[in-house]
């Protein structure tokens, strides 16, 4: 009925919702219907992430009723949910045996998976879903939908409650998996002291310090954020080489390091704000100091569709955006940096290497 227009016959409708036999691809109306239903899929993913369903399946398929009992949900409704998500390769559902196992993507909802996105699924319920209902207004007045939803900029809203901040930091830790290939591509052979700008809980710098025993560093972020770094650094066994520094990177950045890293930071901000941040880095860095930016570069990288999706996220949530190579070069040169090269990685992020001139 949804696909049936005023002049469409029943035969035409059946053809419209079927697979195009000549091409083997879904008919446009079917493909569009799947896109329109995306909000329902994302909510279903939140529910199974919150219930810990994927964690129940790490040892193999189990009866649906057994999984439902362990998760504390109704088996008849869980069955319908996993059947839907099986079509998205999250679960493998055996209707005859009434069992559910992990599909190709399912492990990413497990809490302990190396590439887990479970905390992202949980955080987006609180932060992203509500604001995106206001995207229509954003398209007209440019005010981020999140700012309209929360009555203030997103980061100000997050800082009001520790639970919000903890959830955000956990989600950013998840996204480290997307940055792993970029971190692997960082050339730190000549770097002695690295400042991680916006380093949050220190996860990234701790990993780099574990790999490079000569590396010293500083995790730099807002005072109420960087307090979470100390236990991470201790657990990683690098607290003797990696310290913390609280401050606002729009005001100043720790001086004197021979290299600075901003990992997935500048895309949060508009061009004017980025220029201010880069100016503060240039003031702190001596001539010849290195700057590493881990960001997406539009139309480049192994997964360019990630950049366009993140650009939509920025539109709804913040004033930032994803940028192309020419945009990055313009920003860097305007603040006294020379863009030396853009390193493609095995993931969606690139490494932009620059030098203070």
Automatic annotation (TrEMBL):
Asked if the keyword Electron transport belongs to this entry, the reply reads no
Q: Which residues form the O-methyltransferase C-terminal domain?
A: 147-338
Task: List the PROSITE patterns hit by this protein, alphabetically.
Answer: SAM_OMT_II (PS51683)
Q: Does the keyword Methyltransferase apply?
A: yes
Q: Extract the InterPro entries matched here.
A: COMT-like, COMT_C, COMT_dimerisation, SAM-dependent_MTases_sf, WH-like_DNA-bd_sf, WH_DNA-bd_sf
The record places domain O-methyltransferase dimerisation at 34-95
Which parts of the sequence are annotated with region: Disordered?
A: 1-22
- GO biological process, any: methylation
GO terms (molecular function) for this protein are: methyltransferase activity
Pfam families documented for this protein: Dimerisation, Methyltransf_2
Instruction: Write the record's keywords in alphabetical order, separated by commas.
Output: Methyltransferase, S-adenosyl-L-methionine, Transferase
Query: PANTHER family, per this entry?
Result: O-METHYLTRANSFERASE CICE (PTHR43712:SF2), PUTATIVE (AFU_ORTHOLOGUE AFUA_4G14580)-RELATED (PTHR43712)
UniProt-recorded name of the protein: Methyltransferase
């Amino acid at each position: 009925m949804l696909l049936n227009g005023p002049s469409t016959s029943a035969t035409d409708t059946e053809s419209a919702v079927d697979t195009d036999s000549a091409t083997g691809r879904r008919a446009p109306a079917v493909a569009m219907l799947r896109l329109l239903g995306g909000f329902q899929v994302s909510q279903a993913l939140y529910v199974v992430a919150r219930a810990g369903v994927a964690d129940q399946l790490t040892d193999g398929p189990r009866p649906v009723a057994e999984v439902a009992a362990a998760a504390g949900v109704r088996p008849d409704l869980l069955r319908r949910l996993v059947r839907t998500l099986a079509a998205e390769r999250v679960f493998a559902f055996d209707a005859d045996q009434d069992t559910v196992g992990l599909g190709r993507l399912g492990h990413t909802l497990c809490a302990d998976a190396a590439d887990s996105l479970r905390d992202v699924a949980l955080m987006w319920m609180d932060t992203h879903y509500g604001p995106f209902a206001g995207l229509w207004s954003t398209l007209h007045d440019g005010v981020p939908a999140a700012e309209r939803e929360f009555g203030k900029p997103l980061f100000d809203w997050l800082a009001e409650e520790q639970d919000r901040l903890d959830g955000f930091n956990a989600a950013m830790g998840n996204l480290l998996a997307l940055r792993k290939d970029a971190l692997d591509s960082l050339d730190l052979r000549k770097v002695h002291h690295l400042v991680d700008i916006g380093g949050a809980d220190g996860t990234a710098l701790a990993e780099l310090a574990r790999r490079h025993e000569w590396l010293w560093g500083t995790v730099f972020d807002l005072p109420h954020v960087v307090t979470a770094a100390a236990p991470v650094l201790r657990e990683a066994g690098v607290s003797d080489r990696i310290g913390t520094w609280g401050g606002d990177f729009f005001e100043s950045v720790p001086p004197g390091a021979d290299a600075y890293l901003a990992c997935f930071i500048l895309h949060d901000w508009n061009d004017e704000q980025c220029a201010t941040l880069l100016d503060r880095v240039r003031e702190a860095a001596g001539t010849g100091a290195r700057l590493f930016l881990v960001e997406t570069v539009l139309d480049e990288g192994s997964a360019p569709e990630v950049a366009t999706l993140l650009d939509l996220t920025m539109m709804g949530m913040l004033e930032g955006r994803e940028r192309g190579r020419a945009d990055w070069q313009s920003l860097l040169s305007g603040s006294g940096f020379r863009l030396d090269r853009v390193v493609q990685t095995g993931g969606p992020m690139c490494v932009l290497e620059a030098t203070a001139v």
